[in-house]
Specification:
By secondary structure, this protein is α+β, with helices and mostly antiparallel strands. The chain has 12 helices and 23 strands. Helix 7 (240-249) packs antiparallel against helix 8 and helix 9 (303-328) packs parallel to helix 12. Mean pLDDT is 85; it is low at 251-259.
């Protein structure tokens, strides 16, 4: 007993044993196009438990909604004619209503659907691996030109509703890897996640593959990544790597126990940065090694609240560093922070990226300001002195608020590769 594709089998064909259930699946086939990239929209339907008790990736598949088909009198037919008759009990009106409600939960309201065919399978259940079930998969192509619908499909801020599989123009297999075959019909994987059997069936047909590409929904670049103006902040912990190395070599330092102490310590830093980003209303942020890059777009909160949040952020990091140096008894760690106000872009760089990115000229300036601070705190001992560089134009424009929420040291400049950048140097308020 194993996976069987029953789509082309006659009504007289009979299964060797009765399925434990019958599921009607309404599947959406959606492709997106941006620049030269075409990607198919998939979902990670469910995690699965391995025999070792570990939680592992379940199946990747096209978005779908499913409903269990009742069996009159608890009779579980094995003949395909009777099985197809069971699925026919759910009429088209019920199917349309079920699909419409599901599509609405995806954030789509203005779209066109086209029925593309049907796949009938008998296979092991992904969520209940001790059971074998029949799945009648009705395929629907979905297209839309509505800006909001396109944004909900493209997920520019990478909230994680979908997974995107790039489709190469000449081959459906370029980004796919062989997967260990099983009784669910799995043959292929993407990014280490197994692809559902019905997806494999779909992609193995050249006509289907060509139609997916031709029906791809155009995603304008301004939807994929948005332009903003706001406060940009880059923070990096100085000499954190040295402390991590010390932890690796001397696990008696009281952060964790065992050989993975340095890794656990790094996780604690990430947790701290994540908590600070949420507390201080940093709307857009990405983690970069021993620090992070963040931005607060204008209009989301008041200017004073934004600057106060940056001041609080630096104060919290200052307290974190002092505690860290006290506990480790190795006073090496400090931090560098740069702040600038200006334009930037945030969003998905392409369908191959799984995280939103920050980009723009002002981010490069922030990075150079932060880099210039290294010349001021050049030794481990100096690294304990917190240093904050505020772009001079930004400081002058919002001087009143910076004076309220930072301790201003002096106006001057920082030097990066013999180039001087005008900045005001500050410390956080205690």
């Amino acid at each position: 007993m194993g996976y069987q594709n029953l789509t082309l089998k006659p009504n007289t064909h009979r299964l060797d044993s009765s399925p434990s259930g019958y599921w009607l699946v309404l599947q959406l086939e959606i492709c997106l196009r941006s620049a030269d990239t075409i990607a198919m929209v998939l979902k990670h339907a469910s995690y699965a438990s391995s025999h070792e008790g570990r939680v592992v990736s379940g199946l990747l598949c096209p978005p779908f909604v499913g409903v269990a088909v009742p069996t009159p009198g608890e009779i579980y037919p094995t003949e395909l004619g009777a099985i197809r008759g069971l699925f026919a009990r759910i009429d088209q009106a019920q199917r349309d209503d079920l699909l419409r409600r599901y599509i609405y939960t995806l954030g789509l309201t203005d779209y066109n659907l086209e029925h593309k065919g049907q796949i009938l399978e008998y296979k092991q259940s992904n969520r209940e691996p001790d059971k074998y079930k029949c799945y009648n998969i009705e395929r629907y192509s979905l297209v839309t030109t509505h800006e909001r619908d396109i944004a909900n499909l493209a997920d520019p801020l990478c909230h994680g509703q979908f997974v995107y599989l790039p489709l190469h123009t000449s081959s459906s297999m370029k980004y796919l890897a062989p997967a260990k075959a099983n009784n669910m019909g799995v043959k292929l994987s993407f990014r280490g996640m197994p692809l559902s059997s019905n997806f494999t069936t779909l992609m193995s047909d050249q006509d289907n593959f060509d139609h997916l590409q031709s029906a791809a929904i155009e995603v304008p670049q301004q939807i994929l990544a948005q332009d903003y103006t706001g406060f940009i902040c880059k923070i990096d912990l100085a000499h954190f790597g040295s402390l991590s190395q010390s932890l690796f070599e001397n696990v008696t330092i009281p952060f964790a126990e065992g050989p993975d102490v340095a890794a656990k310590f790094s996780y604690s830093l990430q947790d701290f940065c994540q908590d600070m980003a949420l507390q201080q209303h940093l709307i857009h942020y990405v983690f970069l090694g021993d620090g992070f890059l963040a931005a607060v777009p204008d209009g989301t909160i008041d200017t004073e609240v934004a600057i106060a949040g940056l001041g609080n952020l630096c104060s919290e990091i200052d307290a974190y560093i002092k505690k860290l140096n006290l506990q480790s008894k190795s006073p090496w760690v400090g931090y560098r922070c740069s702040i600038i106000h200006g334009p930037y872009r945030y969003g998905r760089s392409s369908f191959c990226s799984s995280h939103a990115q920050l980009s723009g000229y002002c981010l490069k300036t922030a990075a150079r300001l932060e880099e210039g601070l290294r010349g001021i705190s050049a030794t481990p001992e100096d690294a304990r002195v917190p240093q904050i560089a505020v772009d001079q134009t930004t400081f002058e424009q919002y001087e009143f608020y910076f004076q309220q929420h930072f301790n201003v040291i002096r106006a001057g400049h920082v030097t990066v590769k013999e180039a001087a950048l005008n900045a005001t140097l500050c410390k956080p308020r205690s």
